[in-house]
Amino acid sequence: MLQVQELSVSYRGVAALEQINYQVPAGELVGVVGPNGAGKSTMVKAMLGLIRAVAGKAMFQGKVLGQQLGRVAYVPQRSHIDWDYPITVWNVAMMARTVQTGLFRRTSVQSQQTVKAALERVGMYHLRDRQIGELSGGQQQRVFIARALAKEADLLIFDEPFTGVDRKTEDIIFDIFQELKAQAKTLLVINHDLGESLNYYDRILLLNKRLIAMGAKTDVITTQNLQEAYGSTFSLAAA
């Protein structure tokens, strides 16, 4: 189980997150929504120990999350990735196996098979020798999904994986999410869309610096909650 307890973050004295509390059991897919600047990415980075929290912590199966990152696959926003870096599709996916093989050791046959299977699952194995920067946005995202799969993690966190992707890629990703759920993996997905894609999630976490609501879509995506998160003039019809 993933547990976030009293997590708070501030930048130069200004609160970015205020006492976030929730838990996610294994085998559950949770969508995180909220306006720009709500602290969604900040929350994830603080959970992973990538930025400093002023209070609180994230626990995974009873241990501090930041101390067991080998069990976590994290896919950041596309805007945070250097797409000009000269690296092939194969090597991007193979990065997931560094923990298993060591930084300077030859990758095992098992690791190579795992990476191959991951790239095949997202339909990118045939482009394994292509430079990552030569791919379309959807193809690039599929490669990073493959890297997450190749890590064989227990907790998977995705920061806006559907931004700039085509419908085929979106369908592939949601299919993979369902497969991971069936394997009792825990998934946390930051999603900017308030439309039909929310139907795929077991629960929705609505955030704007503090936790507005968490639960089933019908309980969270209400006019009152959305106006509390997005502003009193917000209209779901215009989202």
TrEMBL record:
- Would I find Transport among this entry's keywords? yes
| InterPro entries linked | AAA+_ATPase, ABC_transporter-like_ATP-bd, ABC_transporter-like_CS, Metal_Ion_Import_ABC, P-loop_NTPase
Tell whether Nucleotide-binding is among the UniProt keywords: yes
The residues forming the signal peptide are none
What are the protein's GO molecular function terms? Answer: ATP binding
Q: Name one Pfam family in it.
A: ABC_tran
| UniProt entry keywords in alphabetical sequence | ATP-binding, Nucleotide-binding, Transport
**Residues in domain ABC transporter?**
2-234
Q: Which PANTHER family match?
A: IRON TRANSPORT SYSTEM ATP-BINDING PROTEIN HI_0361-RELATED (PTHR42734:SF5), METAL TRANSPORT SYSTEM ATP-BINDING PROTEIN TM_0124-RELATED (PTHR42734)
Q: Which family does it belong to?
A: Belongs to the ABC transporter superfamily.
- Its protein name is Metal ABC transporter ATP-binding protein
Q: Name the lineage.
A: Bacteria, Bacillati, Cyanobacteriota, Cyanophyceae, Synechococcales
